[in-house]
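I am still getting used to backbone structure tokens and would like to learn alongside you. Label the sequence line and the structure token line clearly, so we can match residues to local backbone shapes. Go ahead whenever you are ready, and we will take it from there:
>
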Amino acid sequence: MTQKTKNKALIKNRKIAETGIFLALFLGLAYSFHAIPNLEFITLTAFLAGLLLGWKRGLFVALLGEAIFSIANPFGSSLAFPSLLLAQLLGFSLIAISGALSRLFLPSILKKSKVVAALILGAQGLLLTLIYNLLTTLSFTLVSGYDFKQTLATFISGIPFYLVNLISNTLSFAVLIVLVLHYVLRHYPHYLEGRK
């Protein structure tokens, strides 16, 4: 076996291990926080998977992680509402792809200003969470035959839950991703070099 073949095998094994670690982190955090309504760190994990692993592996982690958690959710499986499951998968796909696209500009912004990076990430966390909540709520109300007033009432009644989710994800994106990204840039810059 040549050195080039060994290096390729090592890189392939490293990528498999990294993907597995992110998937385990996704599921571990999903089940750890499942009893606390709308406080979760899987949105952050899916975004980080896209950011650090690239769009293909990030999408794999987000889709498989969300599918497993949604189907085997202790509070009830999304299989009972296929439209909800599809909305959840679509939402997490957008989150992972957004993380992957952020590799193009976030590292350079963070090097110039942590505050600007935190503001951008906070805005991304807020927007992605809002889109996810809209998608999942609409997937239920539209399929259930709700009219506009009933759909609006569903959104209004969900505001306290949405707010917890929006605030926690905005803060976790602004603080935790900045910390992780700063650490990665200092110690493991190869994660953000090129496209994976």
The mean pLDDT is 92. The radius of gyration is 18 Å. The CA atoms of residues 79 and 169 lie 26 Å apart.
